[in-house]
Design brief:
By secondary structure, the chain is an all-alpha fold. Helices cover 74% and strands 0% of the residues.
């Protein structure tokens, strides 16, 4: 599975970067509406390939959709949608001063409480406590929240810095995706040869991932300025792309190796998707965005104090130009300050990882297909017996 996940992430994360490049260059060389036709054509091509090349094979047995906790699925989806709404629109609606955020928080809390309550008595909840209490699942969740908060500046700073400070146009902005894509390819290749084939330890790979994130933050902290060339951004963006796929691959593999039975294993993967793709991608940017708001106000006030000095020459400039200079300088100073705090947290996290003890390696053993079929047959027989008319449940 560690080998398989290397291929998965080079496709998923790589295509995310390439899709943005394709969209911008399609709009640049032609009309942006053509991107819709390209997507329609690719979807049609995919369906044609499936119809032509995939042989219809009937399975060895029929597995009906019995026992699936559809209510739990809806409630978990509602909780994640409310969590995402609060993180994405919290700053826009001024957090708890708005009724929208309060309603979302109340609705999300109710969904979470009902889910946890139903998991105490349901025979097969959508996500069971056995999956929630698993050591590897808890560890992966905490690592995701810390790591993706450290690299959340990708969503908050990088576009603003490149567009407003460095003055990049859309094509130059999207060219930065190539740097991230190169990091993803190299990161997946490095993880394949070291972690998947040579069985390097989880601790070693985690330390490497956090080291790359530390270099990413340190580079921006020391070199962020007005005169940065586009080529100078290759190093931090390359390291960020490599660090992200390394952390994602190794902790998804750790969940596979957590020793959970086959029935609970998909639930652990669901938690991994929630924490990595939903909570990790929205929680960090929400914190960094709110931090930037307060730091920006403080630095604007400090830098704008010099305007009140009538003995300086800057007072003869137009008021709009003065305001723009203050805001630009305050943005640079605020970004450097936040990068500094994140760099400190990254160094502390890396130190904790280095001094910790972790002998585990990716050596998970999976059941044979005949064992899986036997377990599924038993589950189906139990469900059919419980749902048979006149059957008395114990």
């Amino acid at each position: 599975m560690s080998i398989f996940f290397c291929y998965v992430y080079i496709l998923v994360d790589g295509v995310i970067q390439l899709s943005g490049i394709a969209t911008i260059y399609t709009a640049f060389f032609s009309q942006w509406e053509y991107m819709h036709w390209i997507m329609i054509g690719l979807l049609a091509l995919m369906m044609i390939v499936v119809l032509v090349l995939v042989k219809p094979v009937r399975g060895p047995m029929f597995i009906p959709l019995l026992g699936i906790d559809w209510i739990g699925a809806i409630l978990w989806a509602g909780f994640m949608m409310c969590f995402t709404f609060i993180c994405v629109y919290g700053n826009y609606f001024d957090w708890w001063d708005s009724s929208e955020i309060r309603i979302a928080a109340l609705l999300g809390t109710v969904c979470l409480i009902i889910n946890l309550w139903r998991a105490t008595f349901l025979h097969h909840p959508y996500i069971s406590f056995r999956a929630m209490r698993n050591h590897n699942v808890i560890r992966a969740t905490l690592i995701y929240l810390v790591f993706f908060t450290l690299v959340a500046t990708e969503h908050v700073f990088e576009h603003t810095y490149a567009a407003n400070i460095l003055g990049f146009d859309e094509t130059n902005l999207i060219d930065l995706n190539w740097y991230v894509f190169a990091g993803i390819v190299v990161g997946c290749g490095f993880t394949y040869f070291t972690f998947a084939l040579r069985k390097w330890r989880y601790k070693t790979m985690t330390a490497i991932g956090f080291s790359l994130a530390t270099i990413y933050l340190a580079y921006f902290y020391f070199f962020i300025d007005y005169g940065v060339e586009k080529e100078m951004l290759f190093i931090p963006l390359f390291f960020r792309g490599a660090a992200t796929v390394i952390i994602s691959i190794i902790f998804l593999t750790s969940i596979v190796q957590s020793g959970l039975p086959f029935q609970v294993f998909p639930q652990a993967l669901t938690i991994n998707g929630f924490t990595g793709a939903v909570m990790g991608a929205t929680f960090g940017p929400a914190i960094i965005g709110e931090f930037l708001k307060h730091v920006m106000a403080k630095n604007s006030a400090l830098l704008g104090a010099s305007i009140t000095d009538f003995n300086t020459n800057i007072i003869h400039e137009p008021l709009g130009k003065l305001y723009g200079i203050v805001q630009t300088q305050a943005l640079i100073v605020s970004m450097k300050e936040i990068y500094g705090w994140l760099l400190i947290i990254a160094i502390i996290s890396l130190t904790i990882i280095i001094v910790s003890y972790g002998p585990l390696r990716p050596t998970a053993i999976f059941p044979k297909w005949k064992t899986i079929r036997r377990v599924l047959r038993r589950i189906v027989r139990l469900e059919e017996r419980d749902n048979a008319p006149g059957c008395c449940r114990n």
